[in-house]
Amino acid sequence: MIEQGQALPQATLSELTADGMVTHHSDSLFADKKVVLFAVPGAFTPTCSAAHLPGFVTLADKIKAKGVDIIACVSVNDAFVMKAWGEAHNASEIMMLGDGDASFTKALGLEMDTEGFGGIRSQRYAMIVDNGVVTTLLVEAPKTFEVSKAEVVLEKL
């Protein structure tokens, strides 16, 4: 699993924007920026939809006021699902990134096999990334939602 002080791995993430599909390369997406990245096991799932994403939507202005350039949400879903989920939650300040084949999640070492739920998914986590390097990593224990909340991330900034 990636650790604090390590650079993010090379990977691609997809985003469906008003201009069409954009493929982001992790090295350029995180270069020279302070980014809050949080991951969820699945778009439109209960905790993710009721609490995790909405917390970042609510606190986006306060998080960005701490010098954060990008707040991004990643899930092992495709970019079409991520865009629809973001729109359903008025997440216009959040970059909604799809990791459809879980390559980014696996490169981080933060995948989990949910078997009956959907196969390989991401563990729930949040991280603060400064110029491509993880400065804070907050990984949830299975079936919990404590340390990766937007309020916790805001306190860490």
TrEMBL record:
<keyword id="KW-0049">Antioxidant</keyword>
<keyword id="KW-0560">Oxidoreductase</keyword>
<dbReference type="GO" id="GO:0045454">
    <property type="term" value="P:cell redox homeostasis"/>
</dbReference>
<keyword id="KW-0575">Peroxidase</keyword>
<dbReference type="InterPro" id="IPR013766">
    <property type="entry name" value="Thioredoxin_domain"/>
</dbReference>
<dbReference type="InterPro" id="IPR013740">
    <property type="entry name" value="Redoxin"/>
</dbReference>
<feature type="active site" description="Cysteine sulfenic acid (-SOH) intermediate">
    <location>
        <position position="48"/>
    </location>
</feature>
<dbReference type="Pfam" id="PF08534">
    <property type="entry name" value="Redoxin"/>
</dbReference>
<dbReference type="InterPro" id="IPR037944">
    <property type="entry name" value="PRX5-like"/>
</dbReference>
<dbReference type="GO" id="GO:0005737">
    <property type="term" value="C:cytoplasm"/>
</dbReference>
<dbReference type="GO" id="GO:0042744">
    <property type="term" value="P:hydrogen peroxide catabolic process"/>
</dbReference>
<keyword id="KW-0676">Redox-active center</keyword>
<protein>
    <recommendedName>
        <fullName>Glutathione-dependent peroxiredoxin</fullName>
        <ecNumber>1.11.1.27</ecNumber>
    </recommendedName>
</protein>
<dbReference type="GO" id="GO:0034599">
    <property type="term" value="P:cellular response to oxidative stress"/>
</dbReference>
<dbReference type="GO" id="GO:0008379">
    <property type="term" value="F:thioredoxin peroxidase activity"/>
</dbReference>
<comment type="similarity">
    <text>Belongs to the peroxiredoxin family. Prx5 subfamily.</text>
</comment>
<comment type="function">
    <text>Thiol-specific peroxidase that catalyzes the reduction of hydrogen peroxide and organic hydroperoxides to water and alcohols, respectively. Plays a role in cell protection against oxidative stress by detoxifying peroxides.</text>
</comment>
<feature type="domain" description="Thioredoxin">
    <location>
        <begin position="2"/>
        <end position="157"/>
    </location>
</feature>
<dbReference type="InterPro" id="IPR036249">
    <property type="entry name" value="Thioredoxin-like_sf"/>
</dbReference>
